[in-house]
C-alpha cells in the first residue's frame, strides 16, 4: 500500500491522524528520531498507514468498500495483538475482543489474496495451570462450549437490562460471571480463558488453508536491548507489583521464595515474531510457539522481591510533598491460609471499622443538613437522654 504524503494528508482530515502522531511521539522512537533528525516525520509516514478499526466487528469495523477491497488485494502479513489483558474484565468485553476478535481477524485474513501469514499473539497461560514441561500444542476445548458462553452472555445482559439494573450492577455481574466461568473450566481468570477460546476458534476455522502462527509469550517486561534498554509503555502485570511495592501499597503477597516468574523482555518477543514471519511465510498450517525464559534463565520470586527492596532502598519513590517513601522488605507468605489470616488482620478488620464509622455518618448526614435547632433537638437531646439513662 502506498503511503507517505498521501496518507499524511488523508489522516489530517480525520480523527485517526491524531493517533498516528501520538504514536510517533512515543519514547520508543527516540533512536530513530536521533538517526533521522529533521526527516523523521517523513520517514515515519512512509512506513505507517493508520486505519480506524475494531476487531469486535465484522470486517474489523471497516465500512469503506473501496478501502476493504484495497486491503484484501494488498495486505500480505497480518499481526493480531489486539487484546484486553485485564484479569477481572467484564466477561462480554473480554470475550468480544479476545475470542470473537480473533475470529473476525481470521475471517478478514482469509479475504486477503496475497496473504503470506496471520500471526496471532496469544499468551502462554492459555494452557491452564500446569507443572513441568508444557508442550506447544493446541488448546483443547469443545467449540460448542464457546457458542454456549456467547449465548449465556447475551441472556444475562438481556435479563439485567430487563430488570433495569444499574450500570454499576451490570459491570459487577459481568465481571463476576467471567471469573466464575473461567474457574468452572479450569482457568484462573477471564483473560487467559477468553484468549484460550480465541485459539480454539482460530484452529477450528483455519482448516490449514492459510499460514497461521500462534505466539504465546509469558510475562512481558521492558526491553532488554532494542531500541534501548528499559523501554516500556504503561503499567501492566509485573509493573503493577513493582509500582505498588515502591509506593508502599504492597508489603506482602502469597508466594514461596522458590516460585518461578517467567519474564520475557518485549524486544525478545518482537524478535520471535519476526523470526516466525521469516520461517513460516507461505507455509499453510498452524504453528505454535511459546516465548519465555524459565527454561534457560530461571527467575525465582525470592530473588525478584529482594531486588525490589534493594532498588527502592537506593531509589525511593516520593510523596506529593517530595518526602521519600521507605519500604520494608517484601514478606512472602507461603500458604493461602496464612495469607487470608494476614488479609483479615491487616485489611479486613480496619475496613470493617471504617464501614461502621461510615454507616454512622450516613445516619447523621440527613440531620446535619437540617437547621441547628433540629440538630440540637434530634441529636444532642437524644444522646443526653441516653447518657442519663446509663447513669441511672
From TrEMBL:
Q: What GO molecular function terms would the record report?
A: alcohol-forming long-chain fatty acyl-CoA reductase activity; alcohol-forming very long-chain fatty acyl-CoA reductase activity
Q: Which Gene3D superfamilies match?
A: NAD(P)-binding Rossmann-like Domain (3.40.50.720)
Matches recorded under InterPro entries: FAR, FAR_NAD-bd, NAD(P)-bd_dom_sf
Q: Which reaction does it catalyse?
A: a long-chain fatty acyl-CoA + 2 NADPH + 2 H(+) = a long-chain primary fatty alcohol + 2 NADP(+) + CoA
Domain (Thioester reductase (TE)): residue spans on this chain: 39-273
Q: What is its EC number?
A: 1.2.1.84
Instruction: Tell me which domain of life the UniProt entry assigns to the organism this sequence originates from.
Output: Eukaryota
Q: Which GO terms describe its biological process?
A: long-chain fatty-acyl-CoA metabolic process; suberin biosynthetic process
The answer on whether this UniProt entry bears the keyword Hydrolase reads no
A Pfam family found in this protein is: NAD_binding_4
Q: Which UniProt keywords apply?
A: Lipid biosynthesis, Lipid metabolism, NADP, Oxidoreductase
Query: Belongs to which family?
Result: Belongs to the fatty acyl-CoA reductase family.
The record's function comment reads:
Catalyzes the reduction of fatty acyl-CoA to fatty alcohols.
Q: What PANTHER family does its record include? A: FATTY ACYL-COA REDUCTASE 3 (PTHR11011:SF99), MALE STERILITY PROTEIN 2-RELATED (PTHR11011)
Name the record gives this protein: Fatty acyl-CoA reductase
Write down the species: Dioscorea zingiberensis
Amino acid at each position: 500500500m502506498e503511503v507517505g504524503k498521501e496518507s499524511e494528508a488523508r489522516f489530517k482530515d480525520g480523527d485517526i491522524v491524531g493517533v498516528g502522531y501520538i504514536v510517533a511521539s512515543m519514547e520508543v522512537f527516540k533512536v530513530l528520531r536521533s538517526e533521522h533528525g529533521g526527516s523523521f516525520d517523513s520517514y515515519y509516514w512512509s512506513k505507517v498507514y493508520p486505519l480506524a478499526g475494531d476487531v469486535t466487528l465484522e470486517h474489523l469495523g471497516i465500512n469503506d468498500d473501496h478501502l476493504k477491497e484495497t486491503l484484501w488485494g494488498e495486505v500480505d502479513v497480518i499481526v493480531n495483538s489486539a487484546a484486553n489483558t485485564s484479569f477481572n474484565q467484564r466477561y462480554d468485553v473480554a470475550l468480544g475482543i479476545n475470542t470473537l476478535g480473533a475470529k473476525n481477524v481470521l475471517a478478514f485474513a482469509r479475504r486477503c489474496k496475497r496473504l503470506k501469514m496471520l500471526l496471532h499473539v496469544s499468551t502462554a497461560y492459555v494452557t491452564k495451570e500446569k507443572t513441568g514441561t508444557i508442550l506447544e500444542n493446541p488448546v483443547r476445548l469443545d467449540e460448542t462450549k464457546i457458542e454456549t458462553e456467547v449465548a449465556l452472555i447475551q441472556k444475562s445482559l438481556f435479563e439485567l437490562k430487563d430488570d433495569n439494573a444499574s450500570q454499576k450492577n451490570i459491570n459487577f455481574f459481568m465481571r463476576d460471571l467471567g471469573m466464575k466461568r473461567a474457574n468452572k473450566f479450569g482457568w484462573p481468570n477471564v483473560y487467559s480463558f477468553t484468549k484460550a477460546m480465541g485459539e480454539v476458534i482460530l484452529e477450528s476455522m483455519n482448516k490449514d488453508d492459510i499460514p497461521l502462527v500462534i505466539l504465546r509469550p509469558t510475562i512481558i517486561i521492558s526491553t532488554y536491548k532494542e531500541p534501548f534498554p528499559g523501554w516500556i509503555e504503561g503499567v501492566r502485570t509485573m509493573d503493577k507489583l513493582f509500582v505498588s511495592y515502591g509506593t508502599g501499597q504492597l508489603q506482602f503477597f502469597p508466594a514461596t521464595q522458590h516460585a518461578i516468574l517467567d519474564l520475557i523482555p518485549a524486544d525478545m518477543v518482537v524478535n520471535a515474531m519476526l523470526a516466525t514471519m521469516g520461517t513460516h511465510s507461505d507455509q499453510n498450517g498452524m504453528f505454535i510457539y511459546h516465548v519465555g525464559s524459565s527454561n534457560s534463565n530461571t527467575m525465582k520470586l525470592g530473588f525478584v522481591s529482594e531486588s525490589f527492596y534493594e532498588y527502592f532502598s537506593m531509589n525511593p519513590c516520593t510523596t506529593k510533598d517530595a518526602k521519600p517513601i521507605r519500604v520494608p522488605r517484601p514478606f512472602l507468605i507461603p500458604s493461602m491460609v496464612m495469607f487470608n489470616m494476614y488479609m483479615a488482620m491487616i485489611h479486613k478488620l480496619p475496613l470493617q471499622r471504617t464501614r461502621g464509622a461510615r454507616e454512622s455518618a450516613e445516619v447523621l448526614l440527613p440531620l446535619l443538613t437540617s437547621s441547628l435547632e433540629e440538630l440540637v433537638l434530634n441529636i444532642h437531646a437524644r444522646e443526653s437522654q441516653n447518657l442519663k439513662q446509663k447513669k441511672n
